[in-house]
Design brief:
Length: about 325
């Protein structure tokens, strides 16, 4: 296949996803939730919307125009180890490998195998020649390169086991928001998307918020009240009740709006239902913290950074861990 034919196939995939009916989305969400209880219909729908958002023909052409070497003479077998923390989180790696002209050997997560297989089926219906370019495998033997996403612990295993392979290995990351006190109600409500979408389980979810000294969080809490329904999800509610009880028993200073716990701390990563908070004296302090934690941050949300509500709507060229996947693939 030519690059243009591959682009056409993915653009058609985006159109198919846009035209999914509410009944289809409900059915697919039900199947996905049987594998992973965090995969609610809202979150599965958001994941599909995020994929279709990046698969417009205009965006694909704009993105790929910067890569002149996407038709390898000898395609390589690229192993993809996918995570399962949020729906279809491994799709972008699959997109990059197939657009680059290489063969994708896919190891799906047991937490998210149904949706990935579903999208692959659609892609092969649109362009049957892709059947020769990808395969779901239980073990990634006999591969030429690797793209793997996992925890810090699994990353050490990947580094050792695939030490002789060209690779991209992603570790734990999180995202932060930087407020200056001038935010509007709409901006703070949009920040709620960055915090609560996918229950905060993604690396693009905000787990820590930086606010000026003497910041009054009441406006923030009022703005995110529309997300109170998240506490109706049993697993989220269990996390909230558990962490609240620990804070109360230990006498730890915190704020509580009934579904989110605001915890002043220097720690970066927060558990589900907790938002870590840090009061800063000036922006230089924030910049120093960002610099020190550069390798642990995925997104920074705020005025002058990624727009409020934009954390979970990456463009195709917004690479995880800021590692250019297509450049890596074009060099194989």
């Amino acid at each position: 296949m030519t690059l243009n034919e591959r682009i056409n196939a993915f653009a058609l995939l985006g159109e198919k996803i846009v035209n999914l009916s509410p009944q289809d989305l409900s059915e697919y969400s039900y199947r996905a939730q049987s594998q992973n209880q965090w995969f609610t219909e809202d979150n599965v729908t958001r994941a599909f919307s995020g994929i279709s958002y990046m698969l417009s023909r205009v965006k694909l052409d704009q993105w790929l125009s910067k890569y002149p070497k996407l038709n390898p003479e000898v395609p390589k077998i690229v192993g993809i180890i996918m995570a399962g923390n949020i729906p279809l989180v491994g799709f972008h790696d699959l997109l990059c490998v197939l657009l680059s002209g290489h063969f994708a050997a896919i190891k799906t997560s047991s937490q998210d195998s149904f949706l990935i297989q579903l999208v692959i089926n659609w892609l092969e219906e649109i362009e049957p020649r892709f059947k020769k370019n990808l395969e779901i495998r239980e073990r990634l033997n006999e591969i030429d390169a690797l793209i793997a996403t996992g925890s810090d612990n699994t990353a050490r295993y990947f580094e050792y086991y695939f030490k002789n392979h060209p690779k991209i290995i992603r570790k734990n990351r999180t995202s932060i928001a930087v407020l200056d006190g001038s935010e509007t109600e709409d901006q703070l409500k949009a920040l709620g998307n960055d915090i609560f979408w996918y229950f905060g389980l993604g690396c693009r979810n905000v787990s820590k918020i930086f606010v000026p000294q003497d910041y009054d969080p009441r406006k923030f809490f009022e703005s995110i009240e529309v997300f109170s329904g998240i506490s109706n999800h049993s697993k989220y509610c269990n996390n909230y009740d558990y962490h609240k009880s620990i804070l109360l028993v230990n006498g730890t200073k915190h704020l509580d709006n009934g579904f989110l716990l605001w915890l002043p701390t220097d720690n970066l990563v927060s558990p589900i239902s907790i938002l870590h908070a840090h009061e800063y004296a000036d922006k230089e302090e924030v910049n120093r913290i960002i610099s020190v934690n550069e390798n642990k941050l995925q997104c920074i949300i705020g005025n002058g950074y990624t727009s409020f509500g934009g954390g979970q709507l990456p463009e195709p060229w917004d690479y995880a861990d800021n590692v250019d996947t297509l450049d890596f693939l074009s060099q194989l």
